[in-house]
Amino acid sequence: MKKILVVGGAGYVGGVVVDLLLKNKNYEITVYDNLLYEESFRKNCKFILGDVRDKLFFKKNCNNYDYIIWLAALVGDGACNINPKVTNDINYKSLIVIKKFFKNKLIFFSTCSVYGCQNILLDETSKTEPLSLYASSKLQVEKLFKNKNAIMFRLGTLFGLSDLFSRIRMDLVVNTLCAKAFFEKKITVFGGDQFRPLLHVKDVARATVSALNSNKKGIYNLAYKNMRIIDIAKLIKKAFKNTKIISTNIKFQDARNYRVSTSKAYKELGFRPIYNVSYGIKELKSLLEEKRVKNFNDPRYTNQKFLELFKNI
User: Fold this and answer.
1) Which of 60, 70, 86, 156 shows a CA-CA span of 20 to 30 A to 51?
2) Once rounded to an integer, what is the mean pLDDT over residues 105-116?
3) Which of 202, 185, 209 lies closest to 279 in space, CA to CA?
């Protein structure tokens, strides 16, 4: 039986990753998480309440596992800018002990944001131009494990619903615009020609399984489709009737614009995404219309707003 430690396994991505792993009886799953955004962890697997900055724990225990899936991080430009030192400690320094002591396979989740603003189709050999502390911290970890036994996924912009326990992310472009369409009957698009490589959160879990079953290592872009913001808005408008799209030439503070190639992951890992944007919109629409979430404005659903409530993490 393969032992897997899922660091950050109670979160938005971790929740669906753990669900998929638990379906395989050949895996023994342990989740390590500080439950920053959650109130409890109730899944049928081993659980350790802990902080990724606990270097002694990982030094003593990391090699008890055949795989470490590292999802823990402060995510998003705004969230990471609240306290740059904490961001550096969590997103980068916590991995240094793993590099030094862990002898088995690491699966790490980076971001396509490392490409910054480039108007070409980008593959894993393209230059990186991170525009934020978040992207820079992920790029630092990539460099740490460049020659190690690690698969590092550069994730596209995520969307959709995860598992039944973890929180919903309402600070992701598809999810956010769906909420705007439902509650406000309008979507404001700044510019609109910016590209995002979209990826359903459930496909992240499927890619993780592909990585576990592969002897490959290195960096892989992971996305479903490159879409312009304006085209995302138009797709949402079709699903939410009586929604207006308000276009403005005012530049949005997020300057990222990038399209990525996923051919390497297709070829070497045999990975194919199966959840399209329309599927994700349908999920969100049902959730909104059936009022299954009491308060979509709860800061818990937005990384930056929630972390601003804390002086210390």
Assistant:
1) 156
2) 96
3) 202
Q: Where are the beta strands (DSSP E) in the chain?
A: 2-7, 27-33, 46-49, 67-70, 105-111, 117-122, 150-155, 157-159, 186-190, 195-200, 218-222, 225-228, 244-248, 257-260
How many CB atoms are located within 10 Å of the residue 213 CB? 11
Q: How many helices (H) and strands (E) are present in the chain, helices listed first?
A: 12, 14
The two structure tokens encoding residue 116 = 């910054």
Provide the pLDDT confidence category of residue 292 given band limits of 50, 70 and 90: very high
What span, in angstroms and rounded, lies between the C-alpha atoms of 273 and 198? 10
Q: How many whole angstroms separate alpha carbon 20 and alpha carbon 47? A: 16
Angle, vertex CA 222, rays to CA 151 and CA 280, nearest 5: 135
Q: 154 in helix, strand or coil? A: strand
Structure tokens at 128: 């990186």
Helix axes 173-184, 229-239, angle to 10 degrees: 40
User: What domains can be seen in the chain, in order of their start residue?
Assistant: 2-307 (3.40.50.720)
| Distance in angstroms (rounded) separating the CA atoms of residues 249 and 247 | 7
User: What pTM does this model have?
Assistant: 0.95
User: What are the tens digits of pLDDT across the range 192-219?
Assistant: 888 999 999 999 999 999 999 999 999 9
